[in-house]
Design goal:
The protein contains 5 helices and 8 strands; from the N terminus they run ααβαββββαβββα. The N and C termini lie far apart (about 55 Å). The chain has helices at about 1-15, 20-40, 60-70, 130-140, 180, and strands spanning about 55-60, 75-85, 90-95, 100-105, 125-130, 145, 155-160, 170-175. α1 packs antiparallel against α2. The chain has 3 domains: about 1-40; about 50-110, 2,3-Dihydroxybiphenyl 1,2-Dioxygenase, domain 1; about 120-190, Roll (2,3-Dihydroxybiphenyl 1,2-Dioxygenase, domain 1).
Length: about 190
Amino acid sequence: MNKRVFAKLKSLSAGVNIGWVRCFTFRICFGFLIGVFFYCIEFGVTEMTARLEHVNLCVRDVDGMIRFLQTAFPEFRIRRDATDPDGTRWVHVGTDETYVMLNQATEEEGERRELYGGVPGVNHFAYEVDDAEGVRDRLAAAGYRDSTVRNVHPYRKRVYFNDAEGNDWEFVEYLTEDREKRHDYEIPDK
């Protein structure tokens, strides 16, 4: 089957008449892509890895949110602090791999929705951390509200805190490398 598919794709590329050099370049690029395609099929590479690069939050107090994020994550730094031509401030705060974009709100907030109340919207943001209790200690010492729901699980520890904007943040520490145990939902939280 692979040979038939390759032959068909090769015949399609042969019909491209865009000048000798461009056609030759096209065939090399096309051949490379076909090679990558068949390599992926041969070795079972069928998925791409996805990760959350950033989240974009519109907030009333940009500096207050920076304080919250840097209290929770001391390794977070300001990657960019800028002002748009209309005077709206925006900040990227995080690491080289992930960050939170904070946009200064330009409108007055309407009625605040109740978190976990069944209304569409974000209930919380979750970060995996190495030391959930350390995050709890830092945020509590800085005066942030602990919103942790009762949870006792043998393979993960979770703490929750509200920022000054009213957003809820989860910090989860996994206590095992075993993926099945990490993602166990059968053992009830006590």
